[in-house]
Amino acid sequence: MGKLIGFLLLLLVMTQPVPPVQANSLWLDSGPTASLFSDFRAHAVGDIITIVISESSSASRIGNASNSKSASTSLDAGVGLLTFIEPVSGGSSDSFKAQGSVANSNRVTGRITVKVTEIKPNGLLVVSGTQSIKQLSDEQKITVTGLVRPEDVTADNTVLSSNVADAQLKIEGKGPLASKQKQGILTQIFNFIF
Predict the structure, then answer these.
(1) Measured in Å, how far apart are the chain's first and last C-alpha atoms?
(2) Which residues sit opposite 141 in a β-bridge?
(3) In the chain, pLDDT over 90 holds for what percent of residues?
């Protein structure tokens, strides 16, 4: 009888529905640890990219201009009825000479993190970002905008500034130091007039 009850209990346990088994992982199923082989380079609106700025430019120009002109004329003494005319001679000369030179050299290095603001139909990423540094009363603002190809973005989400198309890099400053580097109003007026 005891064996029969044990058998019935075993049969009862075996016929009960078994809940599905779920295996839980120690790792997150989403986010930066989803897979060792995931690609986390920027590819969507709102993603961020660090632009490594390394730009240098130089230009020089030398201009020389000169011209000169001279003329001379003479009139002999009059003869016959025109003896009252005395011999006359004259001359004129004109000369112009100008020299000028311009030399300009710029170098900008740094890193600025920008945000993807739009994705073009051809896949190009429109990026834009601003970095503002304020020290005492002076503020320096760096703004970068441009287009980036997704394949130019490296695995660590950086891109060289030379790979940014239609790049616009603006560096603006305001404060006491920046204002001292500008010409005064009277100097600007005199330069405009003269």
Answers:
(1) 124
(2) 132, 172
(3) 19
